[in-house]
Specification:
This protein is of the alpha+beta class. It is built from 14 helices and 17 strands. α11 links the parallel β13 and β14. α1 runs antiparallel to α4. The chain is elongated, with a radius of gyration of 28 Å. It starts with 12 loop residues before the first helix and ends with a helix.
Amino acid sequence: MIQRPRGTRDFGPEEMEKRRCLEAIMRREAAVFGFREIATPIFEYTELFTIRSGPNIIEEIYAFQDKGGREIALRPELTAPAMRFYVNELSNSAKPLKMFYFGQCFRYERPQSGRFREFFQFGAELISNPGPESDAEVIALAASIMRRIGLKNYNIRVGHIGVLRNMLAEAGVDSEVAPLILQKLDKKEYDEARQRMRDADMEEEQIERVVDITNTVGPIDVLDKIEGDARDHLLGIFKILEAYGVTDIEVDLGVVRGLDYYTGMVFEIDAPVLGAEKQICGGGSYSLTEMFGGEKTFSTGFGIGFDRTLLALEKEGFEGPAHSMDVYVLPVGDACRQEAHRIAAELRLAGVRTDIDLMGRSLAKSMKYANAINAQRVVIVGEKELAQGAVTVRDMNAGEQRLVKREELLAKLGHY
């Protein structure tokens, strides 16, 4: 027996209905905010990801040579492909340009709860002016998605990468060393972060000030601990979010995101029900287009870990929609099968979700199957009824049935 590869999953019909339901809600909410869908290839040139994250990322992704000797990688995320697409073909589009996407990504890492080698990501990117309005727009969309999908317990934490970057720059830290320090601060690995700051000749007082800032979490008032453009920018974002009705957020100056390309606002959404691996969304403002051969462009966006979000919902009791069929057509005997197929075809043509007995079951077993697929009505096609130019329609919820003229069947089904 051939098994599926480690870190991948098979999804049965019930699971797929649940996933499609959640995906549809996210898509609708993005459309409500004026975002339009894009799609990019599942594989890209490996350089697209190494140019941004360095050659070490090869160890974490599926990278290989194709039959033409080209270096190819399965996409590990969707922001870089979206920006590559923008530079290639969309740079002359009217601004603001609002894009969203949904698709599979791949990372070669150890599978664990909520983390797979093949996973799904929903995300949005906004190319606009570098002001609080743009950042507030994407945070508002992410928050609105969380509300719309029905997640009960989540935390939105907003920070600004410029706060820590400015502090390191003022302390004389080299621009190439700063990202290594920020990565450790992002992971809350303070001993390693302190050592790297000492290696960069920072004074102990400066080091502790940086660490203190990363632990600055709370309501908007905590911004009084800092000053400058970053503070003003965050205040502007919070003011707009308040107008949008998004008030369930907090300041967290320790949100670093650990990626070099973030330039300003950064934010994360956690679902505490997931425990240690609780982050389900992350984003912020960034600059990537110049890395891919385009002009420097302000962008802001986010990515939602679809699988982990669904897991959080399930832990809170989410079950998804129950499968059902509008009609189950049940022929009684072989002599009625031809007419039963005609009826099924007529209903399907009209858009009525219709199943039909394909197994030649008895009446009793067919009714049991109709219950199993949650059929709302059963159309029983029997010789006696057909002789009268009619069929029997049984309402499975009410437990009642009646005789319906064959030519009136489609019209009558709409009234049950």
